[in-house]
Amino acid sequence: MTLKESVLTTKAPAPMPFFSQAIKCNGMVYCSGSIGMEPTSMKLVEGGVADRTKQALTNLSEVLKAAGSGIENVVKVNIFLTNMENFAAMNKVYDTFFSKEPKPCRTCVAVHQLPLGTDVEIELTAHL
């Protein structure tokens, strides 16, 4: 039987009671979606989509560290934007986190609405 283990760190926003920040299973780390929320204030960072993309990826980096992995081990990223006009600004920040080859597989889609009215949410999967 495969065991799964929940991942929790105070260096990223606390999850809602019905999901985990991440799950470790079979040598992989599956991270829940992260928005540009500052972990101590639990408020969205001010500014634009670039600021919230940076915070979301910083939060996910901390979750990966708590799992015993790291951003360099990411294999798949899913990005949700409320406006595709933000694609270039998000990509500019994204590239600072994923500058080494091979870059992760990625999907980016436009959605109608995201939690707390944010403009970007990112989820990812990494290996240990």
Please write out the topology.
Elements: E1 4-7, E2 22-25, E3 28-35, E4 37-38, E5 43-44, H1 49-67, E6 74-81, H2 87-97, E7 105-110, E8 120-127
Parallel strand pairs: 6-7
Antiparallel strand pairs: 1-2, 2-3, 3-8, 4-5, 6-8
Describe this structure in words.
The chain has helices spanning 49-67, 87-97; strands spanning 4-7, 22-25, 28-35, 37-38, 43-44, 74-81, 105-110, 120-127. The chain is an alpha+beta fold and 128 residues long. A six-stranded mixed β-sheet has the order 1-2-3-8-6-7, covered by helices on one side. Strands 4-5 form a two-stranded antiparallel ribbon. Strand 4 and strand 5 (43-44) form a beta hairpin. Helix 1 (49-67) runs parallel beside helix 2. The longest helix is centred in the middle third of the chain and has 19 residues, at 49-67. The radius of gyration is 14 Å and the shape is globular.
Q: TL;DR of this structure?
A:
This protein has helices at residues 49-67, 87-97; strands at residues 4-7, 22-25, 28-35, 37-38, 43-44, 74-81, 105-110, 120-127. It is α+β, with helices and mostly antiparallel strands.
